[in-house]
Write a structure and sequence with these properties.
Largest sheet: 7 strands, parallel
Order of helices and strands: EHEEHEHEHEEHEEHEHEHHHHHH
Number of domains: 2
CATH superfamily of the largest domain: NAD(P)-binding Rossmann-like Domain
Structural class: alpha/beta
CATH class of the largest domain: Alpha Beta
Shape: globular
Radius of gyration: 20 Å
CATH topology of the largest domain: Rossmann fold
Length: 363
């Protein structure tokens, strides 16, 4: 059967991985939606689209009535990332964005088969209190914490009632991979930190976060495969799944592998706010870019809000072990998706990809 995949948010961390995955599949037509052009389209057609623009979304939908799959990975984050997660504007904007695109597309695409939607561990309240370990898909906090997840989920559930298409919701943990300017990607943030330390003459890379907690991560390419699987599996119809690499990690314990991938030995634990100390150093970064002929842009364009996110996820300022943040992937495995990757291998892979694309200096 003909397959046409529309990827919304194609320059983001998840959307770019989905674009890469589907773009490499033979016989699949892929359309990438984003405001700025992806650095690579992998054979997909790119359409410049701002999903806050309802009229533009309606025009797009009318021209793409042969769409069979929608990967909705568009995301609006406010400056002051963490503080914005419970703000009304962030919730309303993300809700509106999905409605603007999916509403007219669902009407126009009579052969629509699947919609993939992304959530995360904020569904379990990880940003406001310790998780119930392990967090399971039937234990979300829909009625406790305001979150755009619930607005989007209620909309998709209601829209799908009585229709031939299905939806799947994926709940990844810390997402790690290759993307530029994303709000929540530790790879460019840590890569820039390492480049600054090398510029300062350091040969050992100090760990800048806080005292570690047991957590999980997911590789973007693995997540893209899970998204693709959910669009074809009967067991994923109208279901929610946690997605992880399959193992657990603690930041200080994986730091030697991260340091090695960046060409350093691991140093001491020296807490440092990347958002406060590294983000303002545009002039130093410009020198590094010129010295190595890097293709990455300014820190604002390349790292986005991810310095703040790196501080948050690594627990900068935390002096005691935080509560474990672990989710169960039993439901996903029982449904038939079994891909795994070692988390240390994932970090090395992500840094190598950005180094190969001349977005970060070589190790």
């Amino acid at each position: 059967m003909k397959k046409k995949v529309v990827v919304a948010g194609a320059t983001g961390l998840v959307g770019y991985a989905a674009l890469k995955h589907f773009g490499r599949q033979p016989g699949v037509e892929v359309v990438a939606l984003s405001r700025r052009r992806p650095d690579e389209t992998f054979g997909a057609r790119w359409v410049a689209l701002d999903v806050t623009d309802a009229a533009a979304c309606a025009a797009f939908a009318a021209a793409h009535g042969d769409t069979t799959h929608l990967v909705y990975a568009a995301l609006y984050e406010r400056p002051g990332l963490v503080a914005g997660w419970r703000e009304d504007e962030q919730i309303r904007t993300n809700d509106l964005m999905l409605r603007n695109l999916l509403g007219p597309l669902e009407q126009a695409a009579t052969g629509l088969r699947h919609v993939a939607l992304l959530q995360g561990t904020k569904a379990y309240g990880v940003h406001v209190r310790p998780l119930l370990v392990p967090a399971r898909e039937n234990r979300s906090e829909m009625h406790e914490q305001p979150n755009f997840y619930w607005n989007q989920e209620r909309y998709v559930r209601g829209l799908q009632q009585g229709k031939g298409w299905s939806w799947s919701i994926l709940r990844p943990v810390l997402i790690v991979g290759d993307s530029v300017g994303s709000a929540m990607n530790v790879i460019p943030a840590l890569g820039v930190y390492a480049a600054m330390m090398r510029r300062a003459g350091k040969t050992r890379l100090d760990y800048p976060g806080g005292v570690g907690r047991v957590a999980q991560a997911v590789d973007t390419d693995l997540l893209a495969r899970a998204i693709a699987w959910s669009g074809e599996s009967d067991k994923a119809r109208n279901e929610i799944f946690n997605v992880t690499n399959g193992d657990v990690f603690v930041w200080p314990n994986v730091w030697p592998a991260i340091a090695d991938a960046l060409g350093f030995e691991a140093g001491a634990h020296v807490p440092l706010s990347l958002d406060t100390e590294i983000r303002p150093q545009e002039a130093a970064w410009a020198e590094i870019r010129a010295a190595h002929g890097l293709a990455s842009g300014t820190l604002r364009d390349f790292v986005g809000l991810s310095f703040e996110y790196a501080d948050y996820t690594m627990g900068y300022g935390r002096t005691e072990p935080g509560p474990p943040a672990l989710v169960s992937t039993i439901k996903l495995m029982q449904a038939g998706f079994h891909d795994v990757i070692d988390t240390e291998e994932m970090f090395a892979k992500a840094f190598a990809e950005m180094q190969a694309k001349k977005l970060l200096p070589p190790a």
